[in-house]
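Why does residue order matter? Because the sequence determines the fold. Keep that principle in mind as you read this record.
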Amino acid sequence: MSLLKKHILNQLASQLISQEEAKDLLLELSGKGKASEKSKSHEIAIIGMSGRFPRANNTEEFWQNLAQGINCIDDFPKKRCEDFEPILRNPFYTEFLTGDSIKLEHIKDVQSKAGYLNQIDFFDADFFGIPPSEATYMDPHQRVALENAWQTMENAGYGGDKLVGSKTGVFVGKEGTNYSLYRYCSSQDPMQLTGSWESIMVSRINYLFNFRGPCMIIDTACSAGLVSVHMAAQSILNGECEQAIAGGINLSITGEFDSKYLGGMNMDSVESDEKTVRTFDAGANGTVWGEGVGFVMLKPLSKAIADGDFIHAVIKGSAINNDGASNGLTAPNADAQEEVVVDAWEKAGINPETLSYIEAHGTGTVLGDPIEFKGLTNAFRRYTKKRLFCAIGSLKTNMGHLVAASGSASLFKVIKSIQTKSIAPTINFNSPNPYINFLSSPLYVSDRLQQWKEGDFPRRAALSSFGFSHTNCHMVIEEAPQRKVGVAKRPAYCFTLSAKKQHLLLDYLDRYKRFAADSNWNIADLCFTANTGRGHYPYRLAIVTSSEAEFRQQLEVAYQQLLGSQGESFSEHTIFYAQHSVVSDKKKQRATGEITAKQQKEISQQANVLLEQYLDISDIESVCKLAQEYVTGAQVQWDNFYIDEKRCRLPLPTYPFEEKRYWAEPKISQVSSFNNRIHPLLDRRVPDTQTSNLEKKWIYESEFSNETHWILTDHKIKNTGVVPGTTYLEMVRAAITDALRWQSLELNDLFFLQPMVVETSTQRTVRVVLLQGEAESISFLIES
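Structure:
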């Protein structure tokens, strides 16, 4: 690019091109030229975001962990150990897993280190109007997704009923569609049908807010989160929805099992033995798993600008593809990765030299890292020969592989990097991977926190998310366009804040105190967002204010008064607080704050008359009276307050959900311990008194009943226990292993004559008979 720029300037100096032509060419190189105008109509604004990640309950804590280079990989949380203990005490489950009974203090030996969320058992069911019985049997994925979707809408300034009935789409990436471990581990209840059916996770969001746009779960394994954002953007561009909520989620309900207990089932080839992710490092030996959820709200960029939305960042372009036939079903394809990167860059209409940072998929595997690096390098080499100009990193070194949520986390890291004008360090990078040619590549590993300096073009970054399913996604993100900070046009504004309970309102107020002290905002936009972009609930606070400095002081006064109010209403010149509830007209004796629907309608009419008066003559007394009516229960048409002034939305604090625990009773097997058995399906070996000298025979016996064998209680046909077909094969395998110590065998010529049915309160004695044949063959019979 520098050679082209030099050539253009030489042409200008030689008067071979005009200044206007030179300007157009230079803008084209930076991605601001006319050729990029076509892509601008396809640009998508990210106007809302909310997430929870290991050691981070929100996006600010998430970024601080990354910026400070904190390793968020931890032991399985103690509280979850207690919840999981009854499951691990199920005899068959635990003894098959570990060979011994398990106790609470031993759970840490079974669980693997991972990036765990602080909590997944709390949920504010009351806020969403969900009965406790239903909330208890909602899979934690549903609860976390619902709260996160709400916080995303509020962060965008569209809380309350602002989007109810709108053409909003919901796209959520989640691995393992239609399988709920929470349901499997919980006692049976009819509510499990909707509470654990995976597609209901997104359908519940649409149902509660009456969204009419597309609604779907997307499962492309590890790339599902970013693919969901891509699909949401495409849906908007296709006119299927006006805005969309998109992202990914991954929870490990019972924790990540240590691979040594699972006989290789946890893909030992990619799981780090030392529980440390070393992306692009010579010591890379695999990944570590993690939990997370991250949603964004998307909207066409032109519409977002026109609506005065706060724009976190802009999606310039994105692309998806698939590896197709690679070297193996789970092996990545460098050529396919290169193609999806180039495709995204072309759709974004950028010059790749304008990219300053790339967030890599970066799992820290011996196979994956060099392939990903090669694909990116080859993509750059189509456009430039420059070396070491673009930083690269991976947050998996901090918090592990978040599977379906990994793309969302990567997107959040890129957004926060752009917003803070800094690039976070990639930790655990000590010595470069010898299979990666860093020196001749355009990329260098960002191993320290560095300032992201302003250049001749907006800050731009890209990110990759590659799936175990071979589906790849690449996305280009750009700094949000600067917007003018509006000025207050009225002598006073009314700020409103409300919650469904007083202690939550106090928490909410405390969040605003911190926000007001640390953020860049103006009072008019803050009041506009709080009044029109939040719900209005029974416990209400209103502050009439004229400036940012005055508002900060009023917040502190309001907090102290609310803290000592003991639930009583108060008014302090410009600060008003009260709570109300709507009761039946037939209720004669009413408590303080109880009003009828008729009374609420009357005070609402009075409030809106006061609003009109203030708009006409800007009388501060009118807006104070309006605030008083509001806190007593008036439904104010706040949008009318801003008819003649264009205001912008701010990413204000979101509603403080009540942390109430909902957790189903565990499914406890009644099967007794089988420590004295040969195997869970084989009680004992019995002698054979009729064996001849020409053959060798082994006989094993077991008593099967619904009270002692979980396979009968879990496998029922018409409420009658039936032994599954695979159980017979396991009985034969276990018997041969005990008799001959064979470590492997091949089964041929199997005939299932009839199933074994065991009625409730009955017992059946079952025999496995092994008969030695020729050439190391065994014939067998299972009979009862």
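The two ends are 81 Å apart (CA to CA).
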